[in-house]
Amino acid sequence: IVLAFCATSLAGYVLGTIFVTRGAGLAAIQNEFLSSVSHELRTPLTSIRLYIDTLREGRISDPVETQRCLTVVHQEITRLDTLVGKLIALSKIESRRAAFERRPVALTEVIDEALVAFKAISVGSGVDLHVQVAPELMVHGDRGALGQAVANLLANSWKYTDAETRRIDVTTGADSRHVWIVVTDNGIGIPADEQKIIFEKFERGTAAIDRDSTGSGLGLSIVQAIAKAHRGKVEVHSEPHRGARFRITLPRWRSEAA
Ligand code: ADP
């Protein structure tokens, strides 16, 4: 079932990507993408097969050990499921099939949405979180999707900071035509050469991989796709060991009356 699900979702995503990039002559990019997806799917699948084979061949008699194998299989299936879910979300946004709402949304609503998602992942471990949002700032778009983008940034700040010293700040700002949401942390930071590639699909920083944190390298791709779908952008400022600051900039919306 897992295999069939992955194969169908993968085919959908790949076709979607080919459709989007067709005409641009980006065969090389498609190829690279296919090879990344295949690799990302194969790693957990290989591990699932190994554990299932071990159990099937009756090589383990200890019930505790059996339970441990099943737990690993469960974790790997969850990882695959999350990965495929993210790929589907990206595919929909990039091929413009995502049904985004277009309505006036206050940044306070966007950030509230993000905080609900963030509380679920940071539950149980304290976080020194400071939120300062200008209540009058608005955008025109999808509250849920924009909230997801900010939630991804918060999740990264949480992953790439140390529990003992972790501090995360969320602020907003604006000029006459734009608004922005900034997420700042005091974590491991990102070297300059990696800052160019981290928004690409499946790209992960060396320090992130060394830390053994879970991740698929799709979080920032999703943030960027959502920002672009709202005619906005996302940027990073960071130095190794000196934290990271991510800024999503979006067109400002004002009511007719304002
Ligand atoms: P993932 O977190 O799954 O690796 P992302 O696309 O969300 O994927 O991020 C890509 C990479 O960018 C991460 O692997 C990490 O190297 C770097 N990164 C993102 N956010 C931060 C942050 N707040 N602090 C340090 N590094 C970060």
List the keywords:
binds adenosine-5'-diphosphate, alpha+beta, 258 residues
Question: Which oligomeric form is depicted?
Answer: single chain
Strand content: 15-25%
- Quote the distance from N terminus to C terminus: 54 Å
> How many DSSP E strands?
7
The Rg value, from CA coordinates, equals 20 Å
- Rounded average pLDDT: 89
State the helicity in percent bands: 40-55%
Taken from the alpha-carbon principal axes, the silhouette is globular
- Main sheet makeup: 5 strands, mixed
Structural class by helix and strand composition: alpha+beta
Secondary-structure element order, N to C:
HHHEHEEHEEHHHEE
Q: Show unreliable segments.
A: none
Count helical runs. 8
Helix/strand layout:
Elements: H1 2-21, H2 27-56, H3 63-94, E1 103-106, H4 107-122, E2 128-132, E3 138-141, H5 143-159, E4 167-174, E5 178-185, H6 192-195, H7 206-210, H8 219-229, E6 233-238, E7 244-251
The structure holds adenosine-5'-diphosphate.
Q: How would you characterize this protein structure?
A:
- The chain has 258 residues and is α+β, with helices and mostly antiparallel strands.
- 52% of the residues lie in helices and 17% in strands.
- It has eight helices and seven strands, in the order αααβαββαββαααββ.
- Strands 2-4-5-7-6 form a five-stranded mixed beta sheet, with helices on one face. A two-stranded antiparallel ribbon has the order 1-3.
- β6 (233-238) and β7 form a beta hairpin.
- α4 (107-122) crosses α5 (143-159).
- The chain is globular, with a radius of gyration of 20 Å.
- The model has no long low-confidence stretch (mean pLDDT 89).
- The structure holds adenosine-5'-diphosphate.
